[in-house]
């Protein structure tokens, strides 16, 4: 399972780019709005200069025609840009049209297996089920992800599934266990994934013992 970072914060992206484990970035309008400074285009292009992999940038139009127009414009910013499209009827139309033009798409805000099935049929390059938000509704996000992975495997869809809206480290492990292609992970959770109190305690003990030598 590939690891992406879910943020528009340039400092966070720069920091993880040095670890050699993050192969893509996902953003959304909420994440983008939290960052001050550079405009949308400059931010996306800077992200692309830090991480050599897919970088999702979301359209803000809601009608298919405008989504396609906006997607075509954003796709010219960098060859690694992926156009993030909300999963609606208009979104399906936009995903289909963009796929016909060989523009990569990431169908976002997926909450059910049927939505994933439909965006895969429309030709989405990526599909992003929002695990944490499904859990927030009192339902089982990981069960929905598992259903999606089964469907993708049985029918051989090429759409890659991004486990998104990840809230904690267990979500990452479980996403890998059900075979998600990618998990997009907040910076805080990526940092938590490498930490273990026994590793810290082990290092401290090694240093103490070495000092006694
Ligand atoms: O990648 C999806 C993510 O940005 C949404 O996360 O925590 O707002 O549900 P969250």
Structure description:
The protein has an 8-stranded parallel β-barrel, surrounded by 8 helices. It has a single domain (2-212), classed as TIM Barrel. It has 213 residues and is of the alpha/beta class. The chain has helices at residues 10-17, 29-34, 40-50, 64-75, 89-100, 113-122, 131-136, 141-155, 169-177, 187-194, 197-212, and strands at residues 2-6, 22-26, 55-58, 81-86, 105-110, 126-129, 160-163, 182-185. The longest helix has 16 residues, at 197-212. Helix 4 crosses helix 5 (89-100) and helix 6 packs parallel to helix 8 (141-155). It has 11 helices and 8 strands. 38% of the residues are buried. SN-glycerol-3-phosphate (G3P) is lined by residues 6, 26, 28, 31, 128, 130, 132-133, 164-165, 184.
Compact description:
It is found in: Cytoplasm. The protein has helices at 10-17, 29-34, 40-50, 64-75, 89-100, 113-122, 131-136, 141-155, 169-177, 187-194, 197-212, and strands spanning 2-6, 22-26, 55-58, 81-86, 105-110, 126-129, 160-163, 182-185.
Number of helices: 11
Distinct bound molecules: SN-glycerol-3-phosphate
H-E string: EHEHHEHEHEHEHHEHEHH
Average the pLDDT over all residues and give the rounded result.
97
Helicity, as a percent range: 40-55%
Strand order of the largest sheet: 1-2-3-4-5-6-7-8
Subcellular location: Cytoplasm
Pfam families: TAL_FSA (PF00923)
Pathway: Carbohydrate degradation; pentose phosphate pathway; D-glyceraldehyde 3-phosphate and beta-D-fructose 6-phosphate from D-ribose 5-phosphate and D-xylulose 5-phosphate (non-oxidative stage): step 2/3
EC number: 2.2.1.2
């Amino acid at each position: 399972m590939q690891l992406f970072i879910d943020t528009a914060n340039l400092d966070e992206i720069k920091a993880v780019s040095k670890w050699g484990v993050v192969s893509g970035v996902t953003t959304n309008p909420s994440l983008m709005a939290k960052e001050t400074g550079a405009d949308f285009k400059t931010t996306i292009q800077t992200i692309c200069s830090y991480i050599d992999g897919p970088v999702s940038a979301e359209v803000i139009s809601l009608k298919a025609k405008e989504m396609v127009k906006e997607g075509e414009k954003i796709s010219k910013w960098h060859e690694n840009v992926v156009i993030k499209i909300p999963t609606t009827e208009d979104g399906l139309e936009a995903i289909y049209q963009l796929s016909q033009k060989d523009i990569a798409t990431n169908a976002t805000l997926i909450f059910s297996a049927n939505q994933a099935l439909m965006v895969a049929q429309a030709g989405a390059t990526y599909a992003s089920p929002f695990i944490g938000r499904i859990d927030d509704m009192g339902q089982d996000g990981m069960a929905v992800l598992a259903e999606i992975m089964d469907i993708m495997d049985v029918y051989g869809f090429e759409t890659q599934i991004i486990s998104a809206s990840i809230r904690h480290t267990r979500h990452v492990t479980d996403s890998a266990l059900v075979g998600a292609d990618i998990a997009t992970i907040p910076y805080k959770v990526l940092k938590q994934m490498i930490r273990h109190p026994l590793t810290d305690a082990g290092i401290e003990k090694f240093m103490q013992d070495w000092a006694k030598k």
